[in-house]
Predict the 3D structure of the following.
Amino acid sequence: MKPTGMQRRFLMLAPILLAFGCGGQDSAKQTVTPPPKASASEASPARTDDPKVIDALVEMGAEIERNPDGGAFKLSYTTGDDPTAFMEKLGQLRAIEELTLSGPGMDGRGAEALEKLTTLKRLDLSNSKIGDRTLESIAKLEDLTVLRLRITSITDDGLKNLLNLKKLRALDLRNCNVSDAGLEFIGQIESLVDLQLERANVSDAGMEKLTGLTNLRSLNLNLCVGVGDPGLLALGFAGNMEQLQMDSTEISDAGLAVLKNFPKLKRLRMRDTDTTGEGLQAIRGSDNLTRLELRNTSMGDAAVDVFVSLPKLEYLELSECGILTADSIARIGQIGTLKTLDLWATNTEDASMKGLADLSQLRVLNLENAFLTEESVPDLLQLENLEVLNLSGVGIGDEGFQKVAMLPNLKSVKIVNAGIGFEAVDAVKTKRPDLRVIEY
């Protein structure tokens, strides 16, 4: 008997009804089979290496730290010879994340091996002779976050290769032949957080090319003698700045106005600059500043007003700041958070020490060439947490030295040209064999 038209339609719909259900409440509760989980090897990159490759690299002179799986996690190698064979073997690693290569032999030969190190995150080629050809290979390391090229032979033009490194956060170009032309490329690496340009041949115009680096937190312009107030003011875009270094630049108080744009600033270093306490008012009351390095600047009494307004200041360097008076130095004792204080070649006198005796958290104190006598010994003895003390050129005498050397936490004391006799030194060494006494 042949099926009717109605029966034929039911037979055609039956598989569909079986697959999707026939309605009702249970139709919303269909179980979906999850996709298979990726294996461990598929979920993360390989963390192992061929032991023979690692042994061969060690035999060639490499120092290697391994990860928990036995792979080469960190490697450093220095050579003055042809590196080609080493580089070829290096290219066989599959787990390496940190690599340091240096020495005059590291000149770019075999650089193509770097292209195979796809797991690399930190690369240090400082103190080598690599040039732009090596940068072409580095450009293929898309996961690289830190690149150090200090004292290398790269050029401005070679820096264009770094534009492919979208994850690069730190770039060290200290003592390299970089000029404003190179900053044209660097200013396009928007991921940069830390940029080191010490001794670069850059100018105020070059600073204007960095305005795209809105994530910048640390900038080193030490000895960039072409940078002055216009260049410093051009950095106003960097609202996330935490560390700024600019020794021996042409900045003045006028340029320091930009510091108001940096509420997150933690470290400010501007040694050997024509700056004063008036310009420093821009950081008055800064909530985050912990470190100030102001050696050989024109900081006077007005600067101390700023110092005492900084609630988190721990490190203060004022060596060769000859304008500061003894009374103003005494006021530094009001900064109860200080742990390191450098007063080398300043007008620190016995009267100053009476104020500084209140620095109960102080760990390091440099009083080299201060105008102190044995009168300051009782005040020095109040600094019970001192660990490092420099008394070179200070006239506290043999007896005073022996008393100060008994500070309970003192680990090192320097007394070069302090006129301390051999007998006094020997007596201290007998009582405190753990104390390092630097005589010469």
The two ends are 119 Å apart (CA to CA).
